[in-house]
Amino acid sequence: MKIILILVMLALGGCMADDTKSTSAPASPAATSAVARYQVTDVDRAVRFYTERLGFALDLQAGAEFAAVSRGDLHLLLSGPGSSGARPMPDGRAQVAGGWSRVVLYVDDFAELIDRLRAAGTPFRNDIERGMGGAQIQIEDPDGNPVELHEASEGSTSAAAGPAATSAVVRYQITDVDRAVRFYTERLGFALDLQAGAEFAAVSRGDLHLLLSGPGSSGARPMPDGRAQVAGGWSRVVLYVDDFAEIIDRLRAAGTPFRNDIERGMGGAQIQIEDPDGNPVELHEASES
């Protein structure tokens, strides 16, 4: 699915910029679509980073406020200052870049890409980590949002461990894999693709695949300086729904934590909830126009 209306939906809380750029025809996201959102301070700089260094395509840009880029099935929303997806919480907390929730890019030139990124001065969070599924390492974009590069092990055939080299997914840190799987499948309509005991699970909704990394998984190991990879932050998945009011009522009745009230922009309405570990999930309803 191409993301043109995603800008409209995430939108700007005001008029579209005169220099909106688009590379595909408008298409309204289905109610089963899901994407990821990052906070950025300079949209042009973020677009250059993702397109020039990591091979994303620019789907749409609206001036200095917002852009949408994609790689394989994953669509990443880059929300700059002024966009409705970057507004402060009701208690004044700012939505900032960083955290540990991250996009995961599968590559077939792992060593060469690392060399190119180091030569370009890209910050690295850690050294290469190896697990049964392959090798991984984390970098940071210009705003400090994490990106994981992953090379599958030879002979790997599982959807979670050995996707195509142009695939991209999202990883969340969780403390109880069974609890997380129940939350995403029962409350948010994800499908369970794979589970490996208490260490790891992979769930999906539409084109978006979400990796749930429990304690003991290679994707949850501490950094070389001892920092733990914890849940939370502001990097988040965005779920498009056509039963916005009803799902909010169901989630409130189930005791799901909400971060904010409904935010409205020219493209629709959005609200943020938290999973059992505090990872954010944004629910979005498109405007009728």
List the helices and strands and how they pair.
Elements: H1 4-10, E1 21-22, E2 34-39, H2 43-53, E3 57-62, E4 66-71, E5 74-79, E6 102-106, H3 110-119, E7 129-131, E8 134-140, E9 146-152, E10 168-173, H4 177-187, E11 191-196, E12 200-205, E13 208-213, E14 236-240, H5 244-253, E15 263-265, E16 268-274, E17 280-286
Parallel strand pairs: 2-5, 6-9, 10-13, 14-17
Antiparallel strand pairs: 1-3, 2-14, 3-4, 4-5, 6-10, 7-8, 8-9, 11-12, 12-13, 15-16, 16-17
Question: What letter string, H or E per element, gives the SSE order?
Answer: HEEHEEEEHEEEEHEEEEHEEE
Bulk shape: globular
The major pleated sheet works out as:
9 strands, mixed
Secondary-structure content class: alpha+beta
Evaluate the radius of gyration. 18 Å
Number of helices: 5
Q: How many β-strand stretches?
A: 17
Helix content: 10-25%
